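hi! just following up on the protien thing from before. the input was this:
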Amino acid sequence: MSVDTATVRRVARLARIAVSEEDVVAMQGELNAILGFVEQLGEVDVEGVEPMTSVTPMAMKKRQDVVTDGDKAEDVVANAPIHDEHFFAVPKVVE
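and the predicted 3d structure came back as:
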């Protein structure tokens, strides 16, 4: 894939970057080099390679899925300016 000067101007406008006319040609070369590198990545054989979540192998830390003590409703609404029983009270915003 190749980028022309019109595409460079359009990308610059979408990115809200001011690009002078003399910089358009330089940016065109840079964008073409980037796209060429991305095309090279498509040629790499990744058959049988599992996706990685990290560069270093690590196990994901998980907590036990157990029921906790709960019954903290009073503590939860303790700092609320207005509450009704165990619920936050908020002003009505829709008529």
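The mean pLDDT is 89.
The helical segments are 5-14, 21-42, 73-76.
cheers
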